[in-house]
């Protein structure tokens, strides 16, 4: 009875391809005035519980772009293209999503990283820097945020700390930053010796924290920053790059920040060094250790550069790791 | 420099677990009045383009439930539990998502399947039967739908054809149904011989189509139902179960309907027969043929019972298939 076969499928596709020239075979009721395409994507936020904590992933958008020759510092472009193909991605292109989270611990509302900010939002015509718009769509108010925890000082994590006027975007929040990150980026010697590609980031760090009168609370790894939120030093990507463990009741999730960039390249190939990794070798060591642990403990990971909503599990597979996105729950 | 090690991670988690008893080490600024948890999930819709067509996935929610002993008719429960564990799912539980789509072809607005409907929405307190709410959230109006294409007559596909008053929910739409499906479910002999478990579905079919004065347009496989939408008979799950190919420009997606139920059980184990498959053997043949094709052609699949937004690619892996969800695009 089943009409399905390969020839049939291809001819069906061909039929559809010639659609412009063919009248539909059925469905000849006169069409209503055609509804126009809506042309608008769903607001990018997603919510889940970790025990008593409410976690909201608030996307900042994604950066589509050509695959730079040096995107993976220590791999050939043809091998990167093979990895893209294996992940059903387009060749010679790479899209990097940005996914900060906000945690309501019950007692405090805490933002962890903040997206690229208003300037990039304007430049990119809304493709990036969506964080504050999506925050509002998610029913959250930046004025109610008690604490902002920063994982590291790259622009896609700190840009959203200031608004379009260059003022603090979280007017009432305490700003927590990794001590080692603060030490590195505020050192004038480091700033003056910075390679050309990092000068813009040094300038942004200065701009963002000057706007806050440099009033920050520095934190170390292995500390509980708020009930259920514990820091973990995962240096390498930047000198003070830090991840965070959320834990409540029987549930735990690892907020890995940038331990990997997109998973189909850097979890699949943990030995690859992204152009953004400031110490590629240390970043790789950190990545392998953390991913071995995530796999052994079957711990859920929330990853800044995984596709939204960027929650997944990790398992070992050959020389790398395979990630399985957690299924979207349509209710909370 | 990296403080990360296994002992450390576990102690960090332990620290976090003891949160109730510990004061935070930093972040001691007096808390604002705590913002209450929002407690609301994002509206479940997602939009992408297939050439000139605008496709909107409109979730109907998901059914959480215990794993019934006969959920997989021809596998042991312990093997099903192993598959759940391999997919990082909870043991002895299975959650089935429902994901209809709406296609704007440019000329027509076409709904393909309709969710469980208003009665189930009320019974489940909003966990299921979300379709019409999410349709509105997606900027679509059921009154503007020109055509509803039904894949098969199970309640989770036809229930949304009527509203809470039992009237047509798409007031101006032509309703297209597979000829073989119509023949089976409207046959009074079949209805009278139906096993207990199917009687409710026969009654629902009668109720839904009576509400439309039985005014439907029957269609066969291999026909272009509207420009760029071609039917393909994929019998087995039900006697007239039908899939649909969307094609525009260089893009194609296979709307598989129920060729598989949840992918981590039935794509991973294509030989397993879901309790819902009315002819398990034929459904398996159909499934293997279609999935071999999807894998060979690297064709994208949109699947009713995959986790939202239920768009993926398929590849062969051992005796089964592995599915890779398409990355969420935060812009259209």
Question: How would you characterize this protein structure?
Answer:
The structure is a homodimer of 332-residue chains. In chain A, strands 1-2-5-6-7-8-9 form a seven-stranded mixed β-sheet. The first copy, chain A, has a seven-stranded mixed β-sheet with strand order 10-11-12-13-14-15-16. With 332 residues, chain A is an alpha+beta fold. Chain A has one domain: 4-Layer Sandwich (Metallo-beta-lactamase, Chain A), CATH 3.60.15. The two termini of chain A are 42 Å apart. The relative contact order of chain A is 0.14. About 6% of the residues of chain A have low confidence. In chain A, strand 7, helix 5 and strand 8 form a beta-alpha-beta unit. The first copy, chain A, has ten helices and 16 strands. Chains A and B meet through helix 1, strand 1, strand 10, strand 11 and strand 12 of A and helix 1, strand 1, strand 10, strand 11 and strand 12 of B.
């Amino acid at each position: 009875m089943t009409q399905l076969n390969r020839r049939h499928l291809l001819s069906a596709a061909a039929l559809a391809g010639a659609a412009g020239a063919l009248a539909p075979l059925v469905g000849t009721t006169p069409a209503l005035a055609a509804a126009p395409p809506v042309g608008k994507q769903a607001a990018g936020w997603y919510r889940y519980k970790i025990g008593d904590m409410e976690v909201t992933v608030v996307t900042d958008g994604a950066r589509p772009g050509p695959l730079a020759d040096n995107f993976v510092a220590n791999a050939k472009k043809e091998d990167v293209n093979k990895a893209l193909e294996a992940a059903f991605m387009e060749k010679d292109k790479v899209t990097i999503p940005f996914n900060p989270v906000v945690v309501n611990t019950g007692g405090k509302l805490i933002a962890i990283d903040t997206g690229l900010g208003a300037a990039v939002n304007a430049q990119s015509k809304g493709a990036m820097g969506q964080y504050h718009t999506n925050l509002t769509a998610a029913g959250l108010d930046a004025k109610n945020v008690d604490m902002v925890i920063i994982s590291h000082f790259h622009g896609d994590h700190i840009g959203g700390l200031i608004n379009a006027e260059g003022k603090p975007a979280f007017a009432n929040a305490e700003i927590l930053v990794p001590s080692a990150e603060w030490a590195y980026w505020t050192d004038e010697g480091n700033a003056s010796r910075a390679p050309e590609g990092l000068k813009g980031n040094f300038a942004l760090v200065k701009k963002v924290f000057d706007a806050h009168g440099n009033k920050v609370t520095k934190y170390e790894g292995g500390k509980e920053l708020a009930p259920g939120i514990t820091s973990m030093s995962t240096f390498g990507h930047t000198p003070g790059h830090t991840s965070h463990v959320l834990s409540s009741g029987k549930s735990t999730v690892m907020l890995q920040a940038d331990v990997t960039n997109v998973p189909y390249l850097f979890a699949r190939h943990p030995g690859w060094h992204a152009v953004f990794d400031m110490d590629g070798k240390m970043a790789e060591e950190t990545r392998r250790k953390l991913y071995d642990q995530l796999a052994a403990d079957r711990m859920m990971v929330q990853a800044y550069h995984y596709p939204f909503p960027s929650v997944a599990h990790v398992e070992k597979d050959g020389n790398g790791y395979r990630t399985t996105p957690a299924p979207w729950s349509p209710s909370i």
